[in-house]
Write a structure and sequence with these properties.
95 residues; mainly alpha; 4 helices; 47% helix; globular
Amino acid sequence: MERLWEHGEYRPPWLWSAVEVLKNVSYPIICDPVGAGARRGPHNCGECDAAIAKAIRSHDLTQDPGIFDDLDCNCKVAWQKIVELEEQTFGTPLV
């Protein structure tokens, strides 16, 4: 993975993807976005990374998906477009 990342062939997951999974599971799940906001860790645009990671960690304690309701950032539109493109290309979003 490191070699792929170094050659620009791999991007760590978007934090928006983790949020989407956590919002849609019907059983308790713990998610610790280790390295959130770092280039090698799960990240969004850099401006919202800390707030998203904090919300994910809060969700771990409460299991309340409503904790994500007020999260927003301009980069969410880019993430949504990427998910749509994956859906068109692969038949299902890779989220």
